[in-house]
Amino acid sequence: MKKKNHYHINFLSTENLNRFSEFRTDQNWMEHKLKSASTFFVPMTNLKNICKNNEVSQPVLLSKKDLEKFNEDSYSIYFLGELEKQFYFAADFHCANTKDEERLHKFGEPVELRKIMSSLEPDKASILSYARALSYWHSRNKYCGVCGTKTEISDAGHKIICANVSCKAEYFPRTDPAIIVLVSYGDKCLLARQKHWPKGQYATIAGFVEPGESLEQAVKREVNEETGVIVDKIRYHSSQPWPFPSALMLGFHAPAKNKNISPRDNELEDVRWFSRAEIIESFSKGTFRFPTKVSVSFSLLEHWFNKYIGKPLAEIINENN
């Protein structure tokens, strides 16, 4: 019997969005979509989404008529794509005047996406995440890195060009690759925590990929630097866009060659091995907290946890809530 390939889709990784990237340079096509009654705008201000007052899990979407209430100089438009026969653009109010800021706040209050996304429907969360990622990129690229001249938006927000005719340097949205790995040794997994995390919260090992480094090399280096553990036989699991601010998390599983923990840097407050039984016991006592359910870190841990005999992780969590 042929073994089924493992394929996992993480939160913020919707496959239902059609980005229509081939039409980003088609001005007529874009103008038509901008005027369509089936088009909505995701308002952003200072990298925050607008949510209905007293309903933080209800992000605001503006219609074309809503957007016409604002001065066109107050916002920039970035095309996102089509989802369930509706088109979406980000409306980035990064240069809104005082009156338009007040108008925007009548629709709702600015809220950090990270605080509300776990309560959102996955496709909607993906759209808001996409809008935040583009807004962040534009906020960091207002001037050319070659000559310092102000840049201009092109390709429906997916490209910027230096306005200096003798330079004309082009820039495209960038994503920072970061590895995240569930390390195992026998029937135990390696989890760590940082000082600023909620008490008792642990997660898998993670870190950014360095220039000239492969993903596998990054996994080995980060695990060894942060824990002293050496890993081998690295296996890819899944990925997740993580726009806080601009990462792509690339998830792996890797067995350890040694069990001794001896961190080479001071990034982590605690690192330890957990068996399935230890996780269940600590969680039931309230001394252990899982990484957020919408993270690839949780997906990696759940995948490892459910390999062993017993109740699946989701059922255990539900019983203790």
Write a concise keyword list for the protein shown above.
Nucleoside Triphosphate Pyrophosphohydrolase; 2 domains; six-stranded mixed beta sheet; 9 helices; 26% helix; globular
Question: What does the model show?
Answer:
This protein has 2 domains: 21-140; 176-309, Nucleoside Triphosphate Pyrophosphohydrolase. It has 321 residues and is of the alpha+beta class. The strands form 3 sheets. Strands 9, 10, 11, 12, 13 and 14 form a 6-stranded mixed beta sheet that branches. A 5-stranded mixed beta sheet has the order 3-4-1-2-5. It has helices at residues 27-35, 64-67, 98-107, 113-116, 122-139, 215-227, 276-285, 296-305, 313-319, and strands at 39-45, 48-51, 76-83, 86-92, 109-111, 151-154, 159-162, 170-171, 176-185, 188-193, 205-208, 235-242, 247-255, 270-275.
Rg, rounded, reads 22 Å
What is the subunit arrangement here?
A: single chain
Residue-averaged pLDDT, rounded? 94
Structural class: alpha+beta
**Fourth-level CATH superfamily of the largest domain:** Nucleoside Triphosphate Pyrophosphohydrolase
Distance between the termini: 39 Å
Overall shape: globular
Count of domain modules: 2
CATH topology of the largest domain: Nucleoside Triphosphate Pyrophosphohydrolase
What's the helical proportion of residues?
25-40%
